[in-house]
Design goal:
Layout (H helix, E strand, L loop, with lengths): L9 E8 L6 E2 L6 E2 L1 E6 L5 E7 L6 E7 L4 E6 L7 E2 L12 E9 L9 E7 L5 E7 L8 E7 H5 L17 E7 L3 E14 L6 E2 L13 E4 L10 E6 L17 E7 L7 E7 L6 E11 L8 E7 L10 E4 L11 E4 L7 E6 H6 L7 E9 L6 E11 L21 E5 L4 E7 L6 E7 L6 E5 L12 E6 L12 E5 L6 E5 L13 E6 L13
Antiparallel strand pairs: 1-14, 2-3, 4-7, 5-6, 6-14, 7-13, 8-15, 9-12, 9-14, 10-11, 10-13, 16-26, 17-20, 18-19, 19-26, 20-25, 21-24, 21-26, 22-23, 22-25, 27-30, 28-29, 31-34, 32-33
Amino acid sequence: MTPPLPENVYRAVYDLYVDAVGPLRFPNTEEAVPLDFGVYDAGGALVLSQVDAGGDRGMVIDVNTSGGGNFSIFPTSLARQTLFGMGSAPDPGNYAGELQFDLYVFGDDTDPQSSLQVKIDSGFPDLGFVDLPVSTLAKDEWATVTVQISDIAHNPGHFGGGPVDLGRVLSLFVLEPTSFAHVRLDNIRIICGHVGQGDCGIAPPAPPPPPAGEPQPVYIDAVDPLWDVGINAADSGSGWANYADPANPDNKVQWREVTADEPERGQILEVSFSAGEAFGVWFIQSSMGVDLSAFAPGAVSFDIKVDDYGANEDGMTMKIDCIFPCTSGDQRIGKVGDGAWETVQIPVAQLLGGGLNLTTVNTGIVVFPTAQSSALTFQLDNVQWLPGGAPGSAGAVVLYDEAVADGWFLWDCCGAATFGEVMDDADHGNVVELAFGAGGTVTGFQAVEGVDISALASGTLEFDFKEVSPPPSGSVWRLKLESSNAAIFVEVLLTAAGNPEPGTDWQHYRFTLSGDLAGLDLSDV
């Protein structure tokens, strides 16, 4: 495969600081996210200020520390940002995403044996960093520094957390000197490049969700305006670069809108996959993530007809993406619509179990033949997301209220914790008390058999929590939910989703099942 010429490479630039902090702006939109500074001064060691450097440079950031501390740039609203097309912690590949900034190191005021750590975090202590030895940096002059975001993602911090989740970034930039230092920074940017137009960047804020209780069309006689990118395809022969040309014979996938033989159907879609070794996908996409949390108890529905499956005995596959690599995973649906129209409905709960995050959906539908060595043509109609029952129609699943609920029991995985029920204050009555020893363990509530909470997919997990005595310094509380036999699980920090730091007073905690805890198999908890 011949690499694209430099002028054909898509490039996106996001300014974090140029004369002032933020706002974060997005290509081809009017959206903007206000940014602010965060400062950890290490007990007064670090001082952050903005100074006028004069000339063409203008305002810059001045950082002076006697040892320790850091500063960060983050959204004022604390809204997590989705960096896509720049790799991820589990993906060992290197991607064209980078943090770039101008740096001035005052040589006499900076420890030559120290370093500057450049970090990105998805909420401390989940972070990644790159260490820049001061000995390798220019002194007493401005120089441009570039740090690969893949390198940051592949190098987690050592504070008891996990690696940075680039799909849920909180601090877009963190600088931490490891000793005494005096530095200035300017023109802090996130930059990415990709062979596909729009295939890397920072996702803009999601548009308002559709009205509750109404279907969300994807294609009914035409592509719904919500899916503003429209119809696209990609295949291994194109290097997985998206293409919107529906009739290029060099591509694996072609498509067209046609008038159905049945007058009541109106316009439908006809999609053709050619024979050969290349593998492709066909989809309808939006330019930004769409919040479809209201459809958690519903289904993705479409009509399909395949006149002749030919040698394809494996049928069709569908999926939904939530800004790749976030996805529901491939969902095989078999030889549907074999010779006649058939309505297919995939429960959203099933897609959530495959890893879908309903708050950032950016493909209304992805459909492709499971096997593609032989040619196949199919027709689609009435592609839409259907709501489930009315909000509040599903009853709550109670685990504990003055006593452990029927069908549940207190449990410890590894023998390093004890538990029991004790009387607390008048407001809380009987409560569960957990005591952890020195060994690692997971403890909590377990069901006698798997519980189907699919009807609560648009709901929340809520509970009250307090520390009787705090854990050792540096420890963090985590929340974990599992399906039967831990086949699928979700684990998050207890302070995720804007929840409070635990303390000696009772506090309320709330996590959305389809967003904060996305990926859990809700049919078998």
